[in-house]
Write a structure and sequence with these properties.
11 strands, binds magnesium ion, membrane, 33% helix, binds adenosine-5'-diphosphate, 14 helices, 7-stranded mixed beta sheet, alpha/beta, 4-stranded antiparallel beta sheet, ABC_Ni/Peptide_Import, disordered C terminus
Length: 348
């Protein structure tokens, strides 16, 4: 695997101005992805996964958004590009599968037409060639009878087949990077496994890097090489999948792992649900309000540190971590549930 990252994000920040002050949705996020690598971005709903990736693609359309940091893709800083240059990258060099699968497909055109148009937006090829390519892509993503189905409308496909079409569309220009936002969330378990298989194939056959956004640790364990755990707009843990699963270091990651159902394991513990969203904190550790190990120093933001590519942002003494985790598998459950989300009010 080549060492040079295809995407390097440094200190990404996204703030929304609201009538009552600022809300920081992404708070100093840094990560990189190498060609052919799958980065799993995981965290509960509201932790800033979608906003950060939309930020990378400069797709946050609300006029009240402020975005800063460095986003280097194939050597170019995306935040410095003209809109026209950015449009040329989107869809061709970086493709995105959006969280809502219906936004990707228009109900009024056949899927073949939509894939062909997507190709023709970036490449000068004839309609016939584009259509032939659409058929090949549908075949590649496992749509039966692609020569026929190319003329079907989105509503004529099942959920799983529609998601395959969306993936075919994303692949149409052979992107170096595919960002997939919860691509399997709406699907049943069997279909989900098939889609993950398909995405694994992409990486092998096309050498594409993939950023896989999910709230599901199970999905991450299936597909990711590297894992980025987000909470409150920040990276709380980052590292190779094996390390994050075998020696998770952040109490939030412990909670996520303990909430994955296991056939052989003890009773499943769920993360206590908090009203509101895990918004970025104004001051200390974003997870402090839910953490069973909170102490005085947590009023300050811990930085993301660690050796051999496995980093975490937590004040707990590193050498005690394994023992704390062992002795406290029920810590999260015991945490008093509090309204921890910061509102724009509090940040004012
Ligand atoms: N356009 C917007 N204006 C204001 N706040 C937003 C906007 N888009 C997202 N947010 C907020 O940013 C936070 C992170 O959202 P999001 O990235 O969608 O979370 P995730 O994808 O991890 O579930 C949420 O609190 C959400 O309400
Ligand atoms: Mg999301």
């Amino acid at each position: 695997m080549p060492d040079q990252p295809i995407l390097e994000v440094d200190d990404l920040r996204v703030r929304f101005r609201t009538g009552r002050g600022h809300f920081t949705a992404v708070d100093g996020l840094s990560f990189s992805v190498r060609p052919g690598e799958v980065l799993g971005v995981v965290g509960e709903s509201g932790s800033g996964k979608s906003v950060s990736m939309l930020g990378v693609l400069r797709l946050i359309r609300t006029p009240n958004a402020e975005i800063s940091g460095k986003i280097i893709f194939r050597g170019r800083d995306l935040l410095a590009l003209k809109d026209r240059e950015m449009r040329a990258i989107r869809g061709r060099e970086i493709a995105m599968i959006f969280q809502d699968p219906m936004t990707a497909l228009t109900p009024v055109y056949t899927v073949g037409w939509q894939i062909a148009e997507q190709i023709r937006a970036h490449e000068r090829i004839s309609k016939k060639e584009a259509r032939d390519r659409a058929v090949r892509l549908l075949d590649e993503v496992g749509i039966p009878a692609p020569g026929k189905r190319v003329d079907s409308y989105p509503h004529e496909f099942s959920g799983g087949m529609r998601q395959r079409v969306v993936i075919a569309m994303a692949l149409s220009c052979n992107p170096g990077l595919l960002i997939a936002d919860e691509p399997t969330t709406a699907l049943d378990v069997t279909t989900q496994a098939q889609i993950l298989d398909l995405m694994r194939g992409l990486r092998t056959d096309h050498g594409s890097a993939i950023i896989m956004i999910t709230h599901d640790m199970g999905v991450v364990s299936e597909i990711a090489d590297e894992v980025l755990v987000m909470y409150g707009g920040r990276a709380v843990e980052r590292g190779p999948r094996k390390n994050v699963f075998h020696t998770p270091r952040h109490p939030y990651t412990w909670g996520l792992l303990d909430s994955v159902p296991r056939v052989d394991g003890p009773r499943v513990r769920r993360l206590a649900t908090i009203p509101g969203t895990p918004g970025a904190s104004g001051g200390g550790c974003p997870f402090a309000d839910r953490c069973a190990h909170r102490h005085a120093v947590c009023d300050e933001v811990p930085s993301l540190v660690g050796g051999s590519g496995h980093l975490d942002a937590c004040w707990l003494p590193g050498e005690d971590r394994a023992e704390i985790r062992r002795g406290d598998r029920s810590g999260l459950e015991a945490t008093p549930v509090r309204h921890s989300a910061r509102t724009a009010d509090e940040e004012r």
